[in-house]
Design a protein that fits this description.
alpha/beta; single chain; Glutamine Phosphoribosylpyrophosphate, subunit 1, domain 1; 18 strands; 3 domains; Rossmann fold; about 600 residues
């Protein structure tokens, strides 16, 4: 089980076994390289407390000072030791004191219990699997699936979660497996399994006017970037030329410049993309020119990672992506390019800062402004997906499509998601609807993207930090009225004005553009050829799910393959490879 996590922790390994408790760990060394080895244990009150931990706690310096004042003595400079002493001092309540991204498991020998804690936003993945006499856990499903006690069954409900593009809290796809939900403590003891939510997104009255809000956002961002630049290994930023990554990079560059350092920045691009770019309703501009504007403006040490279609369509890269994700989720070339970007970055840096989640926090997506998405009785991003990709983007068999009944699944999931969203006293119907849309993005949509980011990065041993997921910033901006978040009629008004002095004019004025996707027709042709190879193996198990006729139509030669057909090809190839790699026991009734 531990060795399946070797890619997440290439620097060290360790196991601890005592009585009926066993902990395993693979380490990516970032802070206190010699002193942070795990599993880490301490003796207190005559008993052992031991921990395995993934992630970073950014306020460990303050916590260390407070614990030292309470009599704790430290032998390392690692944040790991601070968290462990924090548990000894405060018990499960240590969770409320942590600022960071973390998944941690503590064996408390005195009380004979296992305590599992996950960060507030769900940045770090965490899964567990109850057994008749205990529990297994791991950062990824593959760690649990490596144990023969775990079933490889995937039911219709698991498949629905895979295809629906919604993230149901706690759902782990594999039958019997659960996800430690964000902001949650799960305790396992002889009395059973107990769950406690220590943080959730709460509705409060926003305290500031426009100028005060802009100032507070800037203050928070300065503090967050300062904290998240702390590392004993090379750092960098992921730069797309959009507002989020540009603001983050500019803040990081200024912070390091004060110490006489330069920040490295990296961007992904595709051969010929800038020269031959074709605007569409998702992406009006290529990233390249804006990336270079920011790199010059902030004086970063910049490098473009330029990819070819052959790399994006490479079946071996597809296999690595699916092994990383444990699932056949079809984000196509955007997954492959992200994996290849991170793999290239890892040759230079161990820690990268990402602009992920700023769109969810500040309101950057088109669906925040689309009247149809605002009015829809469903997840707003699904409305935009249909507008861009069309309704008939499936290569699934009619029988499987009927059995999935995704329409009902999404409807029920949506109603469950909006049921608990608190309304502010006196809040207008429009403001409450925008609060709902913000809440849905921060508790459902962003978790899909955070999981993708974590799996692709940790598959190559790269730690990616997400400053915009700091819970203080999330809470503050979530409660700002929509008229304040979009006071100039544009997306992410608060973020734009809070960092305006740091940005080149081109980026300040740029309209939101999503993560890039290749426009090279050669990529789609490569997918078609791979699908033809798959069709030549009619006995493949994937054809229990995929329609041969629909897949054959998607392989037909056309001057310009549609986005729907391209997505269908990616879905079929991902499913086939997932079946080959994981041999799931599919229950389709």
């Amino acid at each position: 089980m531990t060795e399946t996590m070797a890619c997440r922790g290439p620097d060290d390994r360790g196991t601890w076994v005592q009585g009926h408790a066993a902990l395993g760990h693979r380490r990516l060394a970032v802070i206190d390289l010699p002193g942070g080895r795990q599993p880490m244990s301490i003796q207190a009150a005559g008993t052992t407390t031991v921990m395995v931990y993934s992630g970073e706690v950014y306020n460990f310096t303050e916590l260390r000072q407070e614990l030292a004042s309470r009599g704790h003595r430290f032998t390392t400079d690692s944040d790991t030791e601070v968290v462990l002493h924090g548990y000894v001092e405060w018990g499960e309540a240590v969770a409320e004191r942590l600022n960071g991204m973390y998944a941690l498991a503590i064996w408390d020998a005195r009380e004979q219990k296992l305590v599992m804690i996950r960060d507030r936003m769900g940045i770090k993945p965490f899964y567990y699997y109850p057994t008749p006499d205990g529990v297994m856990f791991g950062s990824e499903p593959k760690a649990i699936l490596a144990n023969s006690l775990a079933s490889r069954t995937v039911t219709l409900d698991g498949l629905r979660e895979t295809f629906a593009y919604v993230k149901t809290p706690g759902h782990a796809i594999w039958q019997g497996m659960r996800e430690v939900e964000p902001g949650t403590v799960v305790t396992v003891s002889p009395e059973g399994i107990r769950t406690r939510v220590y943080w959730s997104l709460q509705t409060r009255r926003h305290p500031d006017d426009r100028d005060g809000s802009i100032a507070r956002v800037r203050e928070l961002l300065e503090d967050i970037i300062h904290r998240q630049l702390v590392a004993d290994v090379p750092r960098c930023t992921l730069l797309s030329g959009g507002l989020d990554s540009s603001a983050m990079t500019a803040l990081a560059a200024r912070r390091l410049a004060a110490a006489g350092e330069k920040i490295r920045s990296f961007a992904v691009d595709f051969v010929g993309q800038s020269e031959n770019f074709i605007p569409d309703d998702l992406r009006a501009t290529p990233d390249g020119p804006y990336v270079h504007d920011v790199a010059g403006h902030s004086a970063t040490e910049h490098q473009d990672i330029v990819l070819e279609s052959g790399q994006l369509a490479d079946p071996e890269i597809r296999a690595r992506v699916i092994r990383a994700r444990d699932l056949p989720i079809a984000m196509g070339d955007m997954d492959a390019s992200l994996y290849l970007l991170f793999k290239a970055i890892r040759q230079h840096s161990t820690v990268a800062l990402s602009g992920e989640s700023a769109d969810e926090v500040f309101g950057g997506y088109q669906q925040f402004f689309d009247p149809a998405a605002r009015a829809a009785d469903t997840f707003p991003w699904l409305v935009r997906f249909r507008q861009h990709f069309g309704d008939d983007d499936s290569v699934l068999t009619p029988d499987f499509t009927k059995a999935l009944d995704l329409t009902a699944y999404v409807r029920d999931s949506y109603r469950q998601a909006v049921a608990g969203i608190q309304r502010l006293n006196g809040e207008s119907d429009f403001e409450y609807r925008m609060r709902q849309i913000s809440h849905l993005h921060l508790t459902r949509f962003v978790r899909v993207l955070l999981d993708r980011k974590d799996r692709m990065s940790m598959a190559v041993g790269l730690e990616v930090r997400v400053p915009f997921c700091d819970h203080r910033l999330v809470e503050y901006v979530y409660n700002a009225p929509w008229e304040l978040k979009s006071f100039d009629g544009r997306e992410k008004s608060l973020l734009r004005e809070a960092t305006a002095d740091l940005l080149p004019t081109s980026v300040y004025e740029r309209v939101k553009s999503p993560y890039p996707s290749t426009q090279d027709p050669a990529y789609a042709v490569a997918l078609q050829n791979q699908a033809k190879d798959l069709l030549s193996t009619p006995s493949h198990r994937v054809f229990d799910l995929i329609s041969r006729e629909r897949l054959a139509r998607a392989t037909a030669s056309t001057p310009q393959i549609s986005q729907a057909s391209r997505r269908g090809l990616e879905m079929a190839l991902n499913l086939a490879l997932w079946v080959d790699l994981y041999s799931p026991d599919l229950t389709l009734s």
